[in-house]
Amino acid sequence: xSKLKVSIVGGSGYTGGxxxxxxxxxxxxxxxxxxxxxxxxxxxxxxxxxxRKITSLKFSLLAxxxxxxxxxxxxxxxxxxxxxxxxxxxxxxxxDLSGDFRLNSLAEYERWYGRPHTLPDRLADFVxxxxxxxxxxxxxxxxxxxxxxxxxATILGLYPFFKNRLVDLHKTVVEVKGGSSEGGNSPSDxxxxxxxxxxxxxxxxxxxxxxxxxxxxxxFGQPAQIHFSATALGxxxxxxxxxxxxxxxSLEEKDIWKLLRAEYGAEPFIxxxxxxxxxxxxxxxxxxSGTNYCDIGFEKDPESDRLVVISAIDNLMKGAAGQAVQAFxxxxxxxxxxxxxxxxLHPV
Length: 348
What we know:
The protein has 2 domains: 4-146 and 320-331, 3-Layer(aba) Sandwich (Rossmann fold); 149-313, 2-Layer Sandwich (Dihydrodipicolinate Reductase, domain 2). With 348 residues, the protein is an alpha/beta fold. A 7-stranded parallel β-sheet has the order 3-2-1-4-5-7-6, with helices on both faces. The chain is built from 10 helices and 13 strands.
């Protein structure tokens, strides 16, 4: 099979580095250019030392970017929309990892991001980037906007219950605990933006931007309210969402099992975790480092109508680069798991 020429724009940050790591081992990819304005001319392993002796690629300037079949756009929020017209001239397909095109509504974008959108007419052109929800649209899509990490963990945990209208739409409470890499910058980038340090950006007790994505994907035509907080853990990778749902009908554990299996049983990257005993009887982000899996577990409160759903991901993989490569595979007719088969490490 002929290979697609793929370039990465904004390749010096964590997400760009992870996309690069994955694509280096993708059998259907010919890597074109990896851009960085600050590090142009330097070997990529100077910034991503795990790629030492894996690739001889060097960063190039955005102005030097040539044509590609596909571009992974890994620029910061607010920068992607500025670059998008030029990127659309450079490649037939684009996967954007910023938040610029995740929301369908211009009003909601401006409400949650606090800035005007410079390409409002393009919002409808992007498919929201969770494959488990939008696989069919991705197959014919030219543009995908990869979902936020906290949003991904939350949506995948909640989706079966909201889709089947089994919950009180105004009482759901979600607490996401994430690693420092949720800030998105590599250490070299963060050192030049101390006011945007990773740890600070991981704390958002109220009004986190990812809530807008969660509401968009779970409303199903009815207004939903998600009470959401994000706090940081003393880890680099990982996001753990603990979701408190209040059921509007009586469900036993066997009913919940049946519901999750019906929705996710055939999904290659979702695993249902429910053991009676042992250290790993609930989802644990630590064992997902470097993988594209989302582990989902649950426990029904025997004293009330509360259901606790727990979902875990690696925020840089299923929450960013891995999910983007999964979408890339779907968009181009490749086996969905290509370059994403790493099962994680144990012990860690």
